[in-house]
Design a protein that fits this description.
disordered N terminus, 5 strands, Muramoyl-pentapeptide Carboxypeptidase, domain 1, five-stranded mixed beta sheet, carboxypeptidase activity, Muramoyl-pentapeptide Carboxypeptidase, domain 2, alpha+beta, Zinc D-Ala-D-Ala carboxypeptidase, signal
Length: about 250
């Protein structure tokens, strides 16, 4: 004999099914609505484009400065203008993303993959850029250690761009920050960008690159590039951040 379900039981089954469906939908919405927390460093909470301003733009600019238009001085100012659009577009193209100059989820996901929890790029670390003579962070000639490290953060991200431009072959930092005592010891210029954490000296980390290839790749990332053929720079590439463009490595370019 076939039993016919009672109306109450059928209604309960329908309501139960609806509740399960609703709960599943809420879980899906909850899991996709919030931006992914990349790491302990910084997480962007929305798309940035030309006209955007604020801390999110500043953090983005630090990471894409090495992809600015060649021969220009890229300024970290928290304002998303044409120069930032160009840098973002170049970054996107270099990493195989849709190159529209708008920083959205795909762009941020790539940045998250490239940075450690302390905000440094994955291929460079603080112990590579501290005082080359004494280690650590002796007081700078002017300003604060925090300012020096902020400058070095920019320099490391620019060096990350150079590394990728060279096919991701490793680079070795032979000198970055120098206290005054260290700068005097190595015979550095009295106004050297190293004194402020605004410069890195780079050499190949393997046999697949040359000083000249590093120098050529550096010209898009750093406004100051000195190398072979320039006095005192035959064994390294000096890459510095400054307010004017000066590239001089006569043996290379």
């Amino acid at each position: 004999m076939r039993l016919t379900p009672r109306p109450g039981r059928r209604l309960g089954t329908v309501i139960g099914t609806l509740l399960v469906t609703l709960a599943t939908s809420l879980v899906a919405i909850t899991s996709t609505a919030a931006p992914a927390q990349a790491d302990a460093c910084y997480t962007w909470d929305g798309t940035l484009r030309q006209g955007s301003t604020g801390a999110g733009v500043t953090q983005l600019q630090i990471r894409v400065a090495g992809w600015a238009a060649s021969g220009t001085v890229f300024t970290i100012d928290g304002s998303y203008g044409p120069a930032t659009t160009t840098a973002v577009r170049n970054f996107q193209a270099a990493y195989g993303l849709g190159a529209d100059g708008v920083a959205g989820p795909n762009t941020f996901s790539k940045i998250y993959a490239l940075q450690d929890d302390d905000c440094t790029p994955v291929h460079f670390a603080w112990n590579e850029v501290d005082d080359v003579c004494y280690g650590g962070w002796p007081a700078p000639i002017s300003g604060t250690v925090a300012q020096v490290k902020a400058n070095l953060m920019q320099a490391m991200w620019r060096a990350e761009a150079i590394r990728h431009r060279l096919g991701d072959h490793p680079l070795r930092v032979t000198s970055a920050y120098r206290s005054k005592a260290c700068n005097d010891q190595v015979g550095g210029a009295t106004n050297s960008n190293h004194l402020y954490g605004r410069a890195m000296d780079l050499v190949p980390g393997d046999g697949a690159t040359s000083l000249c290839s590093i120098g050529r790749a550096s010209r898009q990332s750093f406004p100051q590039v000195l190398g072979p053929g320039y006095p005192g720079h035959n064994d390294h590439i000096h890459a510095g951040i400054q307010s004017s463009v000066y590239h001089n490595a006569p043996s290379c370019f």
